[in-house]
Amino acid sequence: MKSIQQNCSILLIILSLPFIFIGCGNDNAPDVSKIPVEIKSQRLDKDLYALDTNQLGSGLASLRSKYPEFLNFYLDTVMGFSINNNYTDSNPGVQKGLRTFLTHPDYRGVFDTVLARYPDESRINETLKKGFQYVKHYFPEYKEPRIIYLVSGLNNYGALTYGEDILGIGLDMFLGADYPYYKSVGIPEYFSRQLNENYIPIAVMRTVYRQDHPFVVDGKVLLDMMIQSGKEMYYIGKVLPFTEERVRLAYSAEQLQWCEENEAMIYDFFVRKELLYENNLQKVIRYVMDGPSATGMPAESPGNVGAWLGLQIVEAYMQEHPDMTLEQLVSAPIDAQRFLLESKYKPR
User: Fold this and answer.
1) Cα-Cα-Cα-Cα dihedral sign, residues 264, 270, 276, 277
2) Which of 28, 118, 275, 298 is most buried by a 10 A CB count?
3) pLDDT tens for residues 143-157?
């Protein structure tokens, strides 16, 4: 973990469906029920909503005592109000920034929707507790973070970390794929499966993973990025074994089926196009990033099909290295060509 680091993983997420985990668990998952995890959470969104907008200065001073490490980061870095620890009502950051955020009908509508959809956070906390039990099973020294629920005005902050022990969750990014204002702020339709409540734990665990293992593209070939993505998705599958694979991947059932039925074709595509060792970022980044479909492949393909193929390579690698721990896998530097050879990967 990085000390006092604003490591914001901007992950689009919201909700339209309840958590649906029944019947999709991993029977080989370890029993973690005895691992102690305590989820401590706060509702910054509720506390902001309750402020007297005629006395914001004194209200912010009170909030500072409740969120001593996080409040200024939220106000100035996440929201960009430039309050700079000056909580006087005459401060333009308070007057024109925060007060507008709390009184404008559009933003007020976002707050109202969040509070109606999430009157309490107990269900999310229970799911996260289970996930963090798995994290601590594989990483015994890990300390679960304090959770702060917030609203960012649809600024695409789904999950973010601050310092070593705070994890923020932007509930306004989990209001359902059909929430009408996502399109108006430019969120593309292909992100819709990440805009559901059942994606929250995936967004959280991806953020936790990337705090120590950021996704690096500079100087990397496509295979490097595929294996990076594969490691990340393998980790998420291990710490959230009770979630469906298609939810973890943010795929539709049809997209996942297409990948499984066309695995050999997908791999052959990258080989024929000489893309695996291509380092022109503009040519290859699209295959490990979300998109409507994969460039050059049928419309049924997911945009980040390279990430899915990376997961298959990582799974093959772990089958060839049964004594390797999850911690060893995610911490080991990637030599892409060697990793592929040692995985003995053969597309089905």
Assistant:
1) positive
2) 118
3) 999 999 999 999 989
279-326 per-position pLDDT tens digit: 999 999 999 999 999 999 999 999 999 999 999 999 999 999 999 999
Partnered with residue 160 across adjacent β-strands are 168
- Residue reference for tokens 């005592």: 65
Q: Which DSSP letter does residue 258 get?
A: H
Number of CB atoms found within 10 A of residue 348's CB: 9
Kindly report the backbone phi and psi dihedral angles of residue 15, in degrees, each rounded to the nearest multiple of 5, phi listed first.
-165, 140
The residue assigned the tokens 């979300």 is 290
Distance CA 169, CA 149 (A): 5
Interatomic CA distance for residues 185 and 93, integer angstroms: 23
Q: Do 304 and 289 meet the contact criterion of CB atoms below 8 Å apart?
A: yes
End-to-end CA distance of the chain: 38
User: Residue 138: helix, strand or coil by DSSP?
Assistant: helix
0.85 exceeded by the pTM?
Answer: yes
Q: How far apart are CA 137 and CA 167, in angstroms?
A: 20
Strand order in the sheet with 41-43: 6-7, 159-162, 166-170, 146-150, 41-43
Query: Which DSSP symbol is given to 271?
Result: H
